[in-house]
């Protein structure tokens, strides 16, 4: 059995999407981060970073239970467990992992900071708002340019890289992004959003 401790956030949704796409039997266990559930047992005893999502696979490698935190690590694990959405070897695998790392190291952290300084900071800090806002725009430009010659981020096949990036871009307009300036990225977004598994996944904890 797969138990996913999660909430309705971009990092949570990327794993919700993977579970739905693979048709894996699982339980979604809510961790209301707005209420501080991540700091309370049982969740606080499971992972050292006390952040969602966190996966517990009672039938992990060699039949042993496995607990994983970090959404990117969970996506790779589920892809290898099922043999889906990540090539087993070759250039396609490395391209997919490249864009997964791009999301983990750039898109997620930058958009997270942009959101904080735009909507969560106790006082307006124009320098921070401008700095992270400009970087959000730059990253959208990088993605749009890549999609000029590729159907998906890993190449021509839908992959865990697309699942990782998609949930973050649902809030692009709140960061000052004008979709007409990124037509290829917008077309990709609509293609991913139209997938039945994606639509189902986005209802988690809604």
Automatic annotation (TrEMBL):
Sections of the chain in a coiled coil: none
Q: Where is the GST C-terminal domain?
A: 89-206
Question: Which InterPro entries does the protein's record reference?
Answer: Glutathione-S-Trfase_C-like, Glutathione-S-Trfase_C_sf, Glutathione_S-Trfase, Glutathione_S-Trfase_N, GST_C, Thioredoxin-like_sf
Q: Which organism is it from?
A: Bordetella pseudohinzii
**Superkingdom of this protein's organism:** Bacteria
What range(s) does the GST N-terminal domain occupy?
A: 1-86
The entry's protein name is GST-like protein yfcG
Annotated gene: yfcG_1
């Amino acid at each position: 059995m797969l138990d996913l401790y999660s909430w309705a956030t971009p990092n949570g949704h990327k794993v919700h999407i993977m579970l739905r796409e693979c048709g894996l039997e699982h339980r979604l266990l809510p961790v209301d981060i707005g209420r501080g559930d991540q700091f309370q047992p049982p969740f606080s005893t499971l992972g050292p970073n006390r952040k969602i999502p966190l996966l517990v696979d009672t039938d992990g490698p060699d039949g042993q239970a496995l607990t994983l935190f970090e959404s990117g690590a969970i996506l790779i694990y589920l892809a290898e467990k099922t043999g889906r959405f990540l090539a087993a070897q070759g250039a396609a695998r490395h391209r997919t992992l490249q864009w997964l790392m791009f999301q983990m190291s750039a898109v997620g952290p930058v958009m997270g900071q942009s959101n904080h300084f735009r909507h969560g900071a106790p006082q307006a800090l124009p320098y921070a708002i401008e700095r992270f806002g400009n970087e959000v725009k730059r990253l959208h430009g990088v993605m749009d340019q890549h999609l000029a010659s590729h159907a998906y981020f890993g190449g021509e096949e839908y992959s865990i890289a697309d699942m990782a990036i998609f949930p973050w871009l649902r809030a692009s307009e709140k960061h000052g992004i004008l979709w007409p300036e990124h037509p290829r990225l917008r077309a990709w977004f609509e293609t991913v959003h139209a997938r039945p598994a994606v639509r189902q996944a986005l209802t988690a904890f809604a």
